Amino acid sequence: MSSGLDIALIQTRTPATAREALAHVEPLIREAASGGAKFVLTPEGTNVLEQRRDRREAAITTEDEDVAVLGLRRLAAELGVWLLIGSAIVRSDQAGDGRAANRSLLIDASGGIVARYDKLHVFDVNLPNGETYRESATVRPGDGAAVADTPWGRLGLTICYDIRFPHLHRQLAKAGASMIAIPAAFTAPTGEAHWETLLRARAIETGAFVLAPAQGGLHEDGRRTWGRSTVVGPWGEIIAKADHDEPCIVRAKLDMEAVARARAAVPSLTHDRDYLPAV
Question: pLDDT digit string (tens) for 61-107?
Fold first, then answer.
């Protein structure tokens, strides 16, 4: 296992159709690979970002038919890089459920899908500024956590709102994850208030690298996302970040041995105790 890994987070402002989304993200991935990245990660909603229900229904298709997913698989094989599609919004394969899946896809350097993860925690909130979201109305939540092997270590998969559930990240770390992906389309109000704090907390708690590519800016459907794609080290330090919402590439080199050092210094993953529940 190599001790150094060149990665790139792709920050996007994804359009409302898969074809336009592929045209938007592909040049950024090519640029990242030409700069030496071996592992490239994109945000939540890489293939389509559209919350107006009628247009969303017209835009999404199955994973096997999605233009962006198919194009990104071909691109990974062409460039010889591993690629995490942070999430694709695709039709659910659950019979009788008309909702979509919000699905991370880990692609290897041959273009093969080596792991899938459907977002566990859907974003049903009422924000102080009056914004209301009911992701559960259109997205069927997943029912299982996912950790996948890569050439550089194990990768834990999460998506956006999952960041607020520490026990999920702890379980991923205990399953051997040395890196945890948190691709997101964070709202501007919650991003400004909580994004960096939550990212650093999840890294500190798990002693893992946190890799968080994000959507940023004002989208076609009227929503505004926070951006600020960030890489956090296992000691909680910010390794690299964008300080804006514009589409961009955030590059970092990961010293994978830092995971063992952090976990040896504070071995909290081995210190769980059984206890009586609070009443």
Answer: 999 999 999 999 999 999 999 999 999 999 987 767 889 999 999 99
Residue 253 among the catalytic residues: no
Q: Which one of 38, 50, 63, 119 is the catalytic residue?
A: 119
CA distance 214 to 232: 14
Task: Name the catalytic one among 38, 44, 63, 135.
Answer: 44
Distance of alpha carbon 66 from the chain centroid? 19
DSSP state of 63: T
CATH topology of domain 4-266: Nitrilase/N-carbamoyl-D-aminoacid amidohydrolase (3.60.110)
User: Backbone phi, then psi, for 135, in 5-degree steps?
Assistant: -60, -30
Q: Do residues 63 and 92 lie in contact, with contact meaning Cβ atoms separated by under 8 Å?
A: no
248 is catalytic: no
pLDDT tens digit sequence for 220-239: 989 999 999 999 999 999 99
The whole-model pTM stands at 0.96
CA distance linking residue 227 with residue 244, whole number of Å: 6
Answer yes or no: 196 catalytic: no
Looking up tokens 């520490």 gives: 166
In eight-state DSSP terms, residue 155 is: E
Query: Structural domain boundaries of the chain?
Result: 4-266
